[in-house]
Amino acid sequence: xxxxxxxxxxxxxxxxxxxxxxxxxxxxxxxxxxxxxxxxxxxxxxxxxxxxxxxxxxxxxxxxxxxxxxxxxxxxxxxxxxxxxxxxxxxxxxxxxxxxxxxxxxxxxxxxxxxxxxxxxxxxxxxxxxxxxxxxxxxxxxxxxxxxxxxxxxxxxxxxxxxxxxxxxxxxxxxxxxxxxxxxxxxxxxxxxxxxxxxxxxxxxxxxxxxxxx
Amino acid sequence: xxxxxxxxxxxxxxxxxxxxxxxxxxxxxxxxxxxxxxxxxxxxxxxxxxxxxxxxxxxxxxxxxxxxxxxxxxxxxxxxxxxxxxxxxxxxxxxxxxxxxxxxxxxxxxxxxxxxxxxxxxxxxxxxxxxxxxxxxxxxxxxxxxxxxxxxxxxxxxxxxxxxxxxxxxxxxxxxxxxxxxxxxxxxxxxxxxxxxxxxxxxxxxxxxxxxxxxxxxxxxxxxxxxxxxxxxxxxxxxxxxxxxxxxxxxxxxxxxxxxxxxxxxxxxxxxxxxxxxxxxxxxxxxxxxxxxxxxxxxxxxxxxxxxxxxxxxxxxxxxxxxxxxxxxxxxx
Lengths: 214, 333
Known about the structure:
Largest sheet of chain B: 8 strands, parallel
Structural class of chain B: alpha/beta
Number of strands of chain A: 5
Strand order of the largest sheet of chain A: 2-1-3-4-5
Radius of gyration of chain A: 18 Å
Radius of gyration of chain B: 19 Å
Oligomer: heterodimer
Number of helices of chain B: 16
């Protein structure tokens, strides 16, 4: 049945969204495959292969998005057969700050984080810093990821960090930032725990923070 | 006179500012007070020209004009640029509900044209106007993720949408040109998401339809790392190209044809937004010296400056960028 897992993986890479459902059903109905294995060696393997193609510049953003769509469709089908017991590496609350409605950077990073095994709570765009904090603390998320593409809205990031620091929480979530107008200097200046200039580096940053701390 | 001839008409550097909403703080006007009132647009332009004397004049940037005219939901801060809140043109069926605006009758477009005409007639400098490009407009209308997805899953829709946005931008750009704009820069930051092949298909072909109908200086600006698409940008029929502050001009200047002006690229965030005047002078001199032998260089910011950039910082950058070559050559590196 390894061939079936390979077919699922290939289906992701080849962006065959119309075929993924049948493949998942076939795999689930096979007595030799369990849900976790279908996810790990089929769906997630395919997405990781797609991201490798992206990093090697053989795939570009459109391909990554459609691969992720195929993955998500497969996940929807798979979850109807039972809970996937794949342990998340951690929760990340992700938002574009108040006044900014640019979504693409956040969406790409989210795709990569999820492929990397993280649970991403996507709050969308134009979010108040207080709302972001409230949800992050309620979810006990170890990381808050913020995006701002506009020079005029990035001060919202600073506000969030100031409020968070004033709370003096024992296990304070890490705050990482990115976006077109964000620099390492700015991240340092406002007390962010990390900065990433692109999506693949964002995943590596999260991994490092979760493993080693700041 | 070509843009290249203009920037070489005196033995000094020339400067093109790319302002944020700084003018609002100087005049205490709210954004839409300016957008909706040609006289206030003119007043703001005069204040900016007096406070930050440069080699061009410009209106308060209106990157939202297309989306607002088409009826998209708009976030309208008082002291900042507006932005779209929704992206309704997700497929061909949705696109059918929209008509290409007429720049002389639709929304605020006629008011904008009146404002530009007023500025052009009252301030004796080349009028610079930045206009959203067709691909970036498509990103706004469909949403970036949906547009990029559709490139794979629904290419017919993408072509229809881009035909719509290209004609929308073309009509308005022609009207802006006629209103007195001397330099029109098509701004395509959304296009940085494309690889070179798709950039040719979705940007170059469409921007050329716009450039072909303009009689003014023509430019293009794209934010981000444009290394891979720079040659594609340069294949357009343009007079100038403007690149982000992350691009190393010493490395790329030799890629720019002699007849195309390279505009940029002082860091508007770390340098202008957070630096000190003395540091700004030092970095601007450094850039000017690096580009000294290139007569097709025009000093500018890498992108919009921060709204709260200190006045003295902007003044120092512009003053230094316009330094005489005699003075510049006299400064030891």
